[in-house]
Amino acid sequence: MLEGPSESPTSFTHIQDTPWSTPKHSTYSERTSSSLGLSIHARDAPTHSLVHIPSFRYAPSPWSPELSGDAHHPLTASMNVPLSLPWRELYQTRFTLDSRWTSSTPQTKHLTGHADSVYCLEFDSKRIISGSRDQTIKVWDIQTGRCLGTFRGHYGSVLCLKFEKDWDIKGDGSKGFMVSGSSDRRACVWDIWIGEGGEVRAEVRAVLRGHLDGVLDLRVDDQWIVSW
């Protein structure tokens, strides 16, 4: 004759939880002791889960379809996002450029003046500014190719430069700025302005030191200069 399992002084029943159900609790039939040493009977105390399952607050994505109204659109008016683009003008510009490249013969101009290799250049609507292994920076008229100025401030090759483009477009005589990096491990910050006869003048405002090797490239905005 088979006998059933013997009764234990302590018995409990545990029902497995599922991700979608509230955790089931286990009941005890013996006296237990609290953390403070008090004797508590299980029927007089609230039931406790054998395994604590932490609850995580569900936070849908801002673009989730579960959100209604304007909640899908976290963009605010302060971001000044354009609602439309001038597609007609963009297409005409692109079409004109493609036509010129495919059907026209490009005209070349040679800017002669540096004594060694040219490592970098930048340009705006009026000027081309180039940096060279001959340790100089030169400014050229973009229409005529005439050299408008030569600047010296580095003791090594000028490897990179950035300048404030079209700084004189307002015609108020204000100065622009330029930053150049060199193999002499320095970055120079320049003031640039238009002098007599349309020539471009420049003067070193500050020298930035700290690199252990040549300054290969840099980026500039209205607050920061980043070099590497």
Structure characterization notes:
This protein is mainly beta. It is 7% helix and 30% strand. It is built from one helix and twelve strands; from the N terminus they run ββαββββββββββ. It has one helix at residues 87-103; strands at 31-33, 39-41, 118-123, 127-132, 136-141, 147-152, 158-163, 176-182, 186-194, 200-209, 218-220, 225-227. Strands 3-4-5-6 form a four-stranded antiparallel beta sheet, with no helix packed on it. Strands 7-8-9-10 form a four-stranded antiparallel beta sheet, with no helix packed on it. The protein has a two-stranded antiparallel ribbon with strand order 1-2. β9 and β10 (200-209) form a beta hairpin. Residues 1-15, 17-42 and 44-56 have low confidence and may be disordered.
